[in-house]
Design a protein that fits this description.
- Helix content is about 45%, strand content about 20%.
- The protein is an alpha+beta fold and about 200 residues long.
- A four-stranded antiparallel beta sheet has the order 3-2-4-5, covered by helices on one side. Strands 1-6 form a two-stranded parallel sheet.
- α1 packs antiparallel against α2.
- The radius of gyration is 32 Å and the shape is elongated.
- It comes from Chelatococcus albus.
- Keywords: Membrane, Transmembrane, Transmembrane helix.
Length: about 200
């Protein structure tokens, strides 16, 4: 075979292979998509879970603030008042389930020396603090001799991811806030705490 003939054979083979190229590229793209698709789905659901969890965490602060603020605006509270306060505060967390919310409201006495003790405490899913128990307050929360008492609200939200719970389980989010009573030196408890939720 002459050199000229060899050139024509090589050219025909190259042209034949070039005609098969689009099909090969399409096949490679399908394989790549099949490999990447599960990763894309996992990333999508991860972002959905993170957004939902972040939404729950953002609602926890307004819940805690509402709980403390409603009690700090009163002179005294009774069992019915506290039940209403807990129910109203729980509404802040909607659309999340109220059964996943835990709350506690505590009135703390502060003497002239700055010693803080529990006057009364009531819980909704959280154990109440024993009367007379010592409390460590964060720096700057109260001024001894000028702040006779303070209201403390503690909250928890037990967040269970829809999909990722098999990996993370239930995630417990916590918050607390302190508020000075608005109307009286010490908010009183008229009778007893409401019964625990069932």
């Amino acid at each position: 075979m002459t050199m000229h003939g060899s050139f024509h054979v090589i050219a025909r083979r190259t042209a034949a292979r070039a005609s098969d190229l689009p099909a090969n590229v399409a096949g490679a793209s399908a394989i790549e998509f099949a490999l990447v698709f599960p990763l894309l789905v996992a990333m999508f659901f991860t972002l959905v879970e993170l957004a939902d969890g972040w939404g729950a965490k953002r609602k926890l602060y307004p819940l805690t603030r509402t709980l403390a603020d409603l009690v700090a605006r009163t002179n005294t509270v009774n069992q019915s008042d506290l039940k209403n306060v807990f129910n109203a505060a729980s509404a802040v967390m909607q659309p999340y389930e109220s059964k996943d919310i835990r709350m506690r409201i505590t009135s703390i006495d502060i003497d002239a020396a700055g010693k803080a003790t529990v006057l009364w405490s009531c819980g909704f899913g959280l154990d109440r603090l024993p009367k007379g128990a010592g409390v460590t307050l964060p720096d700057g929360i109260a001024v001894p001799g000028r702040t006779p008492s303070i209201i403390r609200a503690d909250t928890e939200f037990h967040y269970t991811p829809t999909i990722g719970y098999m990996i993370t389980g239930t995630i417990v989010m916590r918050d607390e806030i302190y508020m000075t009573p608005r109307l009286v030196p010490r908010v009183g408890l008229a009778d007893s705490c409401p019964p625990p939720p069932t």
